[in-house]
Structures are given as C-alpha cells and as structure tokens.
Amino acid sequence: MVPDPGLQAERTELAWRRTQLSLLVIACLALRGQSPLLAVLALATAAVPWLGQRRRYQRSLAMLREERGHARPGMVLATGLASLALALVALADLASNGRSAHFDTATRRTTMIAQSSPCLTRQLREGLPWR
C-alpha cells in the first residue's frame, strides 16, 4: 500500500464539505417549502463546520505528520444532534400542517395553470395523456 500523507486529511475535509452542501440543499428546499425555522436551523448547522474548516484541516495534517493524535468527536456529535433536530422540526411541521407546504404550493400552481388553459383543463378532467 502506498502511503498518502495528507490525503487522509483531504478526504475528511471533503466529507465535511459534502455534509455542508447537503445542509445547504436542505435549507433551500425548506425555504421553497416555506419553512423558515427549518431553513435557519439547516444554515446554522452548515455554518458551524464551515467556520472551523481551516483549523480542523491544519490540525489533521499535524496529527498525520506526528503520527499521533486524538479523535475529537465533538463536531460529529454536534452535527448528528443538529441533524436530529432538523428531522424533528420537519416532522413537527408536517404534523401541524397535515401535509407538506411544498405539496400545497405545487397543488396551487397546477390549479392555476389548469384554470388558465382550457386545453389543459380538458386533459386533466378527462385523464388524457400530456403532449
């Protein structure tokens, strides 16, 4: 096996960036679904790892050079707890509305489009295929 000094830290950093990107996507979807609390929580969760990114990367490189180090599970635990909070907020929002806000928005758009187009209204009413 070929040693890869520095690449372990790089892979770890890329994993954290993927987590941040996923949280940003969740925030965008929450805003689109009109759930500002969920969006703010997702943005805050994405911001915490981003703020300590450079320091964490430098610390990982130093641990690899010295060939010793101690795991710091705090960030992993905090991100896991924040993800749990995101899920609970989303479930509470879903339970309070009876269905997702995004579904309501999509239904309103479909109704508006159908009302503005007689041909589309006929297709929807008669179950004709889309062209």
From TrEMBL:
It is found in: Endomembrane system. InterPro entries: DUF202. It is a multi-pass membrane protein. The chain crosses the membrane at residues 20-52, 73-92. It comes from Metapseudomonas lalkuanensis. GO terms for cellular component: endomembrane system. This is DUF202 domain-containing protein. Keywords: Membrane, Transmembrane, Transmembrane helix. It comes from the Bacteria. Residues 4-61 form the DUF202 domain.
